């Protein structure tokens, strides 16, 4: 029924994009209202980039849009196409783990276990995996066990990298939209319908979320319930993109693995840089800090929109640079990616990027403590200012 770039495919994609956008836009206000009534809010701390208690359950709306739209769209797929429903079990597992973490906070080991289970289920059901090393190190076809393990590792790395980059308004959403657009265009051209529909669904849901994520009066965060799901979907799209180009085709991309890295460069590069920096300091790579690139840009005096814009532009430039080597050898294109990462890692350092670090970070800590005292300990304030407190009580 669907052929690459056919009229029917564009109708389907338009329906998917608009429907997911409107579902997310309709669900989020209800989520915000419930979160405020039940006090399910993310409280700011010394590592936060926000000052007020904010709902962090935006993933509920994103998940709802993906489930509803993807299920409806599945009925229009051809019988020979990939079964849409095979991607849903993994998404459901990660969503419920994420929402529990947003509300109660769970052990990181349990989150990792959930990601492994989701990845194993997905690979087992679909057999979508990286089965070829593209001649790197003289290796081509991979044994099944090695292929399975490598793909599972990719799922875990990409999911966590995307989860970690969700630290300021708009960044995770914009990077997710960028990656989904790149993969969506390619899958639409080559005729991978389920991949195209999944990309369109993701774009619509994230754009609907970004409306509120950038809002001042109705702000909501994606939360782990959203970042884990979106990160896993981006990992699925990346692996499918690599697998599709393991054999020559009309739109063959010779450097598919490095192009996949480029599409997710900002989350992957920043996670690798931060983990390496922590290990060099002989601390656990999972020790939280404000050394992520978005934190450094914000600490340098830029607002969230500016930081998101800068990093999105950098992401686009990295993808454009990688596209110049689509027919080059893996070794050459991988060398370019390594060079870009080296420049990135050397540039993105606190002593270079945050020129006012000695002022901005301590000042932020003091302000956070003052705000916390004002909100949580009003009686102590009344003790320090008895006349003001007495006047307030009389007027009341």
Give a written overview of the molecule.
The radius of gyration is 23 Å and the shape is globular. It has 17 helices and two strands. The chain has helices at 7-37, 58-74, 88-103, 108-126, 144-165, 171-190, 193-213, 223-244, 256-263, 265-280, 293-299, 304-323, 330-347, 350-353, 357-376, 378-384, 386-395, and strands spanning 41-42, 54-55. It has a two-stranded antiparallel sheet. With 396 residues, it is mainly α. It has one domain. It starts with 6 loop residues before the first helix and ends with a helix.
Low-confidence sequence ranges: 357-363, 365-396
The helix/strand order is: HEEHHHHHHHHHHHHHHHH
Distance between the termini: 70 Å
Strand share of the residues? under 5%
Radius of gyration: 23 Å
Total domains: 1
- Strands across the major sheet, in which order? 1-2
Number of strands: 2
Question: What number is the mean pLDDT?
Answer: 83
Largest sheet geometry: 2 strands, antiparallel
Helix content: over 70%
Q: Helices and strands: which structural class?
A: mainly alpha
- What overall geometry do the principal axes of the alpha carbons give? globular
What is the count of helical runs? 17
Any key phrases for this structure?
396 residues; disordered C terminus; 1% strand; mainly alpha; two-stranded antiparallel ribbon
């Amino acid at each position: 029924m669907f052929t690459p770039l056919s009229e029917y495919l564009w109708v389907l994609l338009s329906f998917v994009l608009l429907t997911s956008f409107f579902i997310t836009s309709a669900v989020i206000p209800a989520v915000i209202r419930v979160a405020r009534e039940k006090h399910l809010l993310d409280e700011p701390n010394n590592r936060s980039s926000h000052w007020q208690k904010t709902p962090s359950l935006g993933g509920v709306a994103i998940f709802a849009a993906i489930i509803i739209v993807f299920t409806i769209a599945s009925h229009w797929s051809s019988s020979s196409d990939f079964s849409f429903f095979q991607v849903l079990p993994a998404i459901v597992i990660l969503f419920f783990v994420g929402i529990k973490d947003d509300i109660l906070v769970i052990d990181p080991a349990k989150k990792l276990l959930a990601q492994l289970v989701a990845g194993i289920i997905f690979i087992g059901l679909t057999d979508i995996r990286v089965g070829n090393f593209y001649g790197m190190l003289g290796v081509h076809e991979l044994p099944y066990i090695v292929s399975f393990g490598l793909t599972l590792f990719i799922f875990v790395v990409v999911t966590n990298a995307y989860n970690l980059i969700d630290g300021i308004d708009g960044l995770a959403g914009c990077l997710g939209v960028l990656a989904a657009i790149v993969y969506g265009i390619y899958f639409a051209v080559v005729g991978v319908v389920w991949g195209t529909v999944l990309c369109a669904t993701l774009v619509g849901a994230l754009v609907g979320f970004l409306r509120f994520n950038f809002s001042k009066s109705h702000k909501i965060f994606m939360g782990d319930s959203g970042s884990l799901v979106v990160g896993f979907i981006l990992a699925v799209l990346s692996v499918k993109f690599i697998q599709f180009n393991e054999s020559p085709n009309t739109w063959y991309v010779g450097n598919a693995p490095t192009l996949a890295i480029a599409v997710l460069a900002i989350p992957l590069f920043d996670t690798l840089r931060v983990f390496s920096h922590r290990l060099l300091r002989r601390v656990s790579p999972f020790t939280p800090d404000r050394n992520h690139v978005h934190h450094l840009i914000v600490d340098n005096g830029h607002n969230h929109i500016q930081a998101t814009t800068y990093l999105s532009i950098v992401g686009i430039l990295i993808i454009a640079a990688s596209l110049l080597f689509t027919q080059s050898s893996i070794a050459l294109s991988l060398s370019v990616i390594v060079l870009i990462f080296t420049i990135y890692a050397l540039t993105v350092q606190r002593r270079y990027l945050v020129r006012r670090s000695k002022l901005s970070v301590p000042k932020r800590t003091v302000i956070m403590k003052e705000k916390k005292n004002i909100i949580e300990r009003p009686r102590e304030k009344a003790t320090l200012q008895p006349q003001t407190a007495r006047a307030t009580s009389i007027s009341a």
